[in-house]
Amino acid sequence: IQKFDGSGNLLTQKLLDDPIPSASGCYMFPTPDMMGCRVVLAGWGRYTIYNCYTLDNDLNTVAVKENVDHLTYPVKCVEQASFRVNPYNGRTYTINCQSETQPDCNGNPVYIHEQDILMGMFDADNFEQMAYTWGITTPTQSYMGMPNSIDFDENGDVYMVGGMDGAMPTSLYIVHLDEDLNKLDEIYYRENDYRLMYNGGMRVSANGDVFVNCMAWKLGEPSTTGTIYKVPREAFTSVDEAHAAGFAVAIAYPNPGGSEMHIRTAVENAAVEVYDMNGRLVAQQPVTETETVLDA
Q1: Mean pLDDT, rounded, for 240-252
Q2: 10 Å Cβ neighbour count for 107?
Q3: Which end of the chain has the lower number of beta carbons within 10 A, N or C?
């Protein structure tokens, strides 16, 4: 690890001797106080192991957290992840891809479905995972985590963007969460004639508008076009505003619910499915754009 001044002069360097070879990735991001850095090293083995090193301003190691993916399920909240430190609360947020697996009779992982978007939150002191939430579950592979993006508004709310529908994504997933990773709003967006190849780049403006940068590839043409999409703040708070702007939104209210749950969306061929704690489907109902009422 090397540290340079603003003119590119080498100030100091350090050899970080991790016992696990870093074969799967190395991720570096600022510490919550912005005075040092954190390095997450992905080791290689039957199951990938992640060790987190916290370094001070002079690159001295001040803390080591081994196996930061310590929860049994889901695992690897930092695999191929994008990292950002929230300046309002010091927590570290991640967005990445994650495959759901179950062990077979020999203990080997068997994929239940393809990679989905998974978001995690870690505390500032011990880099322990405090919470996680799934973004979108699709029958096809979601985009890998590193190109995905995280940003924050002036209230400390969290915004995350990921690519959906495979290694060649066709649509964008945009989610607005509070600082505890409770989902506030979700938006799905696609162009009819384009693949939206999201490779990172998102910022939240002072008034809450979200700007997303991606590559648009028109079907049947060899070249791509750099594109910036603006998602107005109103699209996160109003179904009608979102639909008018061309964004597909799914909103359920009231939240928390009571005896009834009302659902509105412009997602085509949508349905709500209810499962019991054993994973058995107990109810299924089509969802329409106008309004669908689910009896709790």
Answers
A1: 71
A2: 7
A3: C
